[in-house]
């Protein structure tokens, strides 16, 4: 089994680590775009063009499925990717887990990039899946870039600023950018109020990995022998796992190490959103 994942940068790490946990025997192809990142400020057509190039590089390695582990690319490029690759290669996109977060009754906060917060795409998801629930969009300027660079002080500053913009009565937070799952525990720590019920964070990595297996008719096998290989492509070029990936538990897991005891467990992020 071979599963490819794509993103502009390190945002694919959470979904790749989730797939590694579900199928330690699966070969993984990680295809990103350091030459073209960040994708967020680009026009929709430009995002689609870059995403298609990254997807083609991954598809050349004949994966059984391709995970678009990027919210921006899923919004702007999913139809183009599916038109070119399916049915030969099933393409699994990522959307913010608004529906399961709203099912808890709210209030809910959606942490996302400034471009996504308040966008027609996000407003539509809220209208469809969170009608009657108090939902606050929280823009997080600089957070994805800080995570991409593993800049500790910049991450802390961006998380603290976003936490200041988040209502104190929230019960759930949707992580609307795949990069944010890499710092989920920092976000939880910044938002958890003393004496308040435990805050629920809704990520997408586990659900996306599970959906990819369903699309190819495979079952999770977490006890399988850890024989899966890892291939990394940077703007189409063969590369190794970037050093910045090792700053995160997900990256260390992919590099062949084990997650530390204090790393967030898979079930600490709610992952029940239906995947497109």
UniProtKB/TrEMBL annotation:
Keyword Methyltransferase set for record: no
Keywords tagged on the record: Isomerase
InterPro entries: Asp/Glu/hydantoin_racemase (IPR015942), Asp/Glu_race (IPR001920), Asp/Glu_racemase_AS_1 (IPR018187)
A Pfam family the protein falls into: Asp_Glu_race
Name of the protein in question: Aspartate/glutamate racemase family protein
Phylogenetic classification of the source organism: Bacteria, Bacillati, Actinomycetota, Actinomycetes, Kitasatosporales
């Amino acid at each position: 089994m071979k599963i490819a994942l794509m993103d502009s940068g390190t945002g694919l790490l959470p979904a790749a680590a989730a797939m590694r946990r579900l199928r330690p025997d699966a070969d993984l192809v990680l295809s990103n775009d350091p030459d073209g990142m960040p994708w967020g400020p680009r026009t929709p057509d430009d995002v689609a063009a870059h995403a298609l190039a990254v997807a083609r590089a991954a598809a050349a390695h004949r994966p059984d499925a391709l995970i678009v582990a990027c919210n921006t690319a899923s919004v702007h490029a999913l139809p183009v990717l599916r038109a070119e690759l399916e049915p030969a290669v099933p393409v699994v996109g990522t959307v913010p887990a608004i529906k399961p977060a709203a099912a808890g009754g709210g209030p809910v906060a959606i942490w996302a990039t400034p471009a996504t917060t308040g966008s027609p795409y996000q407003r539509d998801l809220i209208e469809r899946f969170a009608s009657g629930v108090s939902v606050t969009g929280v823009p997080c300027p600089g957070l994805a870039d800080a995570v991409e660079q593993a800049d500790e002080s910049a991450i802390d500053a961006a998380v603290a600023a976003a936490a200041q913009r988040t209502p104190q009565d929230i019960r759930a937070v949707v992580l609307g950018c795949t990069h944010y799952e890499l710092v989920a525990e920092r976000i939880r720590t910044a938002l958890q109020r003393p004496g308040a019920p435990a805050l629920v964070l809704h990520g997408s990595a586990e659900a996306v990995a599970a959906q990819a297996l369903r699309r190819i008719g495979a079952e999770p096998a977490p006890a399988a022998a850890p024989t899966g290989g890892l291939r990394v492509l940077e703007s189409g070029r063969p590369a190794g796992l970037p050093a910045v990936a090792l700053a995160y538990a997900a990256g260390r897991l992919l590099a062949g190490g084990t997650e530390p005891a204090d790393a967030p467990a898979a079930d600490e992020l709610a992952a029940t959103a239906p995947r497109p």
